[in-house]
Amino acid sequence: MQNRYDEHEAATCAAQYPHIPEALARRVYTSRLIGSDPALVLHGGGNASVKCQVLTVVGEEIEAVFVKGSGADLAIMTPEGFCGLDLVPLRQLRSLESLDDAEMENQLGIHRLSTRSPDPSVEALVHAFLPHTFIDHTHADSILVLTHQKDGERLVGEALGPKVVVIPYTMPGFPLAKAAIAAYDANPEIDAIVVMDHGIFTFAEDSRTSYFRMIDFVSRAEAFIAARIKDEPRSHPQPSRQRPADPDGVLARCGPVIRGACSFCDSSARRRRFFVEARTSPALVEASLSPFAKTLCETGVLTPDHAIRTKSRMVFLDLLPEKDEDLKQVIVKKVQDFTAQYGQYFQDQARKRGFSGEILDPYPRLFLVVGLGLFALGFTPKAACINADIGEHAVRTKVQAMALGGYVPIREDHVFDMEYWPLQQKKLGKSGFALLQGQVALITGAAGAIGFGIARQLLNNGAVVVLTDIHQDRLENARSLLRAEFGDERIQSLTFDVTDYPSVEKAFQEICRRVGGIDLVVPNAGVAYVARLEDLDPAQLDRVVAVNLKGTFNVIKAAIPIFKRQGTGGNIVVISSKNVFDPGPAFGAYSASKAGAHQLSKIAAIELADIGVRVNMVNPDAVFGDEKVCSGLWELVGPERMKSRGLDPEGLKAYYCQRSLLKKEVLPEHVGNAVVFFASDQTPTTGATLPVDSGIPGAFPR
Ligand SMILES: [Zn+2]
């Protein structure tokens, strides 16, 4: 393990925060060092603290302990990420035999130095009770490899030496705080405490030493493990298990099936969908092919802390039939077995301790898939990524533990205690439920004004959006504008040509590999050509038909197998045109190709209803966009229209406004709102056309 401490960087970090105690500023620096090493902690795991004197508002000096906020990520720690607590009254709690969670929360609440600080870590009392100025706590992989052995306690002692004391697994909160201080009182010369199946605490009077001790002990554990397993023969793949011939293709097929099999309706009858992130590192592929792949999946989490995110077990997918229907059957059965087993675990544990709370959703979050790697599920792309990281570390750590001697799993009651501990669930935070939460939406022609407006409204309503276009530079522009407004997490982009079916199909597979599937497809890419029929070059007609009609067909066709694999319905919202019902002269290529796409969409509505996919059309008119994202169509048509009517751009906008019934300008976001309406399944509607044109009687759908 690399020691990343740099005195110059530590001093720079301290200088960055001149208005807080220097010890706290130095605490920020070493917290980040710990948080940035995934072999020590993952996403919000582990914690750190510092004790120092602070002045109250009336100038009285008191002893304070600053503990990491619950669920905060050490890697990006700032002073505000810590919760300052009045140390003396918290220390007095040591004298109690027991303290229930509600009262512990109350005590941590009333002794906070600021109401604006985050909730302190659930391990805050460990930090308060131990006397050391700096305390670092991690769930280091190598420590867990040792504690999960049959004689783990002895091995930890052998690996880390006499300055470490090992205590049995103890529930975090007050019990762990009592156990830690008792261990220290009995051995005041120690530099660290290892908690079986949980992790390690190191401590010292300065931040550097506490960090160095962490790195030193974890390095010792790593070296000990490496020396013990270096002569072990590598595990050989089970002869019956092989990599699929086309791993990329199978990966793209598996994502939607897994996603669909795990989708469910919650207690408010809302459909919940997961995002799926696939990890395919050679180590994961090797583990999935090994004779102990099934054991890896069934032996539970490394530390109970992970259970709130990944549940305890993983699904092992050892069969990948070639036909979609067979693959679906295999995966659905695996998910059913998992949820049944989870239900049994909940019932057994709840009965044992008289727990009267509700069961959490019983769906798996991790799949180890033979020859492919790991699939991780999460309600947000970020959650899927966190779960993938946890899963990847679990597999690696267990493989090591098995090579060392054997992996001894955590007792299920420890897992349940943590998984259903309200203080632990609180870490996940309460997220609001947006209208399109969980949906993946793919828009073609997303670099243009209408596509951009649609993407914006879909993002505003919680969807993950895949921006696609043929123009890379314009797509980048749209993407960067949307990133500035919504961040990066829910935005994907891809360049492809809608007229080329293989390239469309490849792009759709790529999306399935990235996020697991697609729920909403918005064929929007379109081109125009202005010419009366007698002047219309047949090659130009072909070009317009290729994008507007065939492009719509290609996109709908490529989406169908994905909708079928997911089995959770879906929406196609085709961006059609006012011209379909109300054509004009010199616009034959555009109007005819759009009318063809419109008719095709109605056929799709008829054909796809039995798989729950609704197909609806939106007919916009006169959408100009703005200088940031302008409409390609209007760039082409506008000048001619302006010329023929003797108007400037503003005059043309006003002209189109005035000719409609409502006399309102039609904005790209209005088209976006129509798409959101259809995509949110608020009415049982398919095959319908919704005009977004400010009212044009000649274009009323008929
Ligand atoms: Zn911990």
> Which range does the strand content fall in?
5-15%
Arithmetic mean of pLDDT: 93
Provide the spatial order of strands within the biggest beta sheet. 3-2-1-4-7-6-5
- Ends distance: 71 Å
Specify the biggest β-sheet: 7 strands, mixed
**Estimated helix fraction:** 40-55%
Q: Please, how many helices?
A: 25
User: What kind of oligomer do you see?
Assistant: single chain
Structural class: alpha/beta
- Bound small molecules, deduplicated: zinc ion
* Principal-axes shape call: elongated
Rg over CA atoms, rounded to whole Å, is 30 Å
Q: In total, how many beta strands?
A: 20
Low-confidence stretches: none
List keywords for this structure.
702 residues; alpha/beta; 7-stranded mixed sheet; 7-stranded parallel sheet; 25 helices; binds zinc ion
3D structure, described in words:
This protein is of the alpha/beta class and 702 residues long. The chain is 47% helix and 14% strand. The protein is built from 25 helices and 20 strands. Helix 10 packs across helix 14 (324-353). It is elongated and about 100 Å long. The structure holds zinc ion (ZN). Residues 123, 137, 139, 198-199, 305 line the site of zinc ion.
